[in-house]
Amino acid sequence: MYKHILIATDGSELAQKAVAQGLAIAKALGTKVTAINVSEPWVAVAPGEVAMAFPIKDYEESVVANAARILSAVETEAKALGVECNTLHVKDQFPAEGIIETADKLGCDLIVMSSHGRRGLMRFLLGSQANKVLTHSTTPVLICR
């Protein structure tokens, strides 16, 4: 069935549900996992005047440290379950694009991720990364809410 599951996480409480679900599936099926965290480009996070107060070097250092913390926790959880788990920090990509490209590149046959379930204006302004993955990925996607 599935041989390589990609689990996308941003470290949030909601994303942790997807991590737990993805690892449970991997354990049940005896498959390997790659857990990824995607960091958006600095220009997307710090536009205009904000960029002056938040230098790119500080941003890059903080996203690397944050990704390491998030992925280390997934690695620890996978190890406790006896699931083979690699981790990957994808930098300077929008989450949906980074998730889809990584799944394709690694030959993953299932993507597991969460959806924040934003509606109305928040969805319009922030978009839905889960929806973008669902509509653009050729790899099956499991969305956890």
UniProtKB/TrEMBL annotation:
Residues 1-145 form the UspA domain. The keyword Cytoplasm applies. One of its GO terms (cellular component) is cytoplasm. Keywords: Cytoplasm. It is found in: Cytoplasm. Belongs to the universal stress protein A family. This is Universal stress protein. It comes from Hyphomicrobium nitrativorans NL23.
